[in-house]
Amino acid sequence: KRVAILISGGGSNMLALLDSMEDAGHPAEPCLVASNDPEAPGLAKAAARGVPTAGLDHRPFGKDRAAFEAELHKIIESHGADMICLAGFMRVLTAGFVSGWSGRMLNIHPSLLPKYRGLHTHARALEAGDAEHGCTVHEVTPELDDGPILGQARVPVEPGDTPDTLAARVLTMEHKLYPAVLRRFAAGDRRPVWLP
Ligand code: GRF
């Protein structure tokens, strides 16, 4: 399976995915790392690993999401992608784009969905006094952060946690969960991954 990975920033999840796909016999290979920010630091890291990259600045498209997504779709298709992994990609994708990749697009979200869809998930978990938190990999559907769950990883909330300390603990698990889910998904195995 040829995988296009979409990022917006540092791309730590993207790097974890690239590293995992170097394993011999892995059912997936990276064909593109693209970002809505041409300056995303993750693009240089991907290029350094020999992975084709593309920066498509969304800002010149203004409110015309469809035009931005049409161009993004063309770039992804031109690299022969079979599927997409969203990894720290911070643009909401319209139903039009999502439906073109139905069943072939994954996302990682830093909460135990269905809790805390959207942003600021770590602060919200702390405010709620949750004893545990975590991350979820799901298939992307038109509804934000809502598709079928393919895996989750749990972490304890520790006394004195701040959003940053909790986010760091979750991120460590993201880097384990996403590669594990991608390996199964690319092999056609739909059994969910539960960590630890
Ligand atoms: C992480 O919080 C991740 O949960 C979310 O985007 C943030 C940055 O991820 N998807 P990355 O380091 O750019 O992969």
Automatic annotation (TrEMBL):
> Which annotated residues bind (6R)-10-formyltetrahydrofolate?
65, 107
Domain of life of the organism encoding this protein: Bacteria
Q: Pathway listed for it? A: Purine metabolism; IMP biosynthesis via de novo pathway; N(2)-formyl-N(1)-(5-phospho-D-ribosyl)glycinamide from N(1)-(5-phospho-D-ribosyl)glycinamide (10-formyl THF route): step 1/1
Q: Which residues cross the membrane?
A: none
Q: Give the Formyl transferase N-terminal domain ranges.
A: 1-182
Return the InterPro entries for the record.
Formyl_transf_N, Formyl_transf_N_sf, GART
- The site annotation (Raises pKa of active site His) covers 145
BP GO annotations: 'de novo' IMP biosynthetic process
The similarity comment for this entry is:
Belongs to the GART family.
Q: What does this protein do?
A: Catalyzes the transfer of a formyl group from 10-formyltetrahydrofolate to 5-phospho-ribosyl-glycinamide (GAR), producing 5-phospho-ribosyl-N-formylglycinamide (FGAR) and tetrahydrofolate.
Q: What is this protein called?
A: Phosphoribosylglycinamide formyltransferase
Q: To which species is this protein native? A: Tropicimonas isoalkanivorans
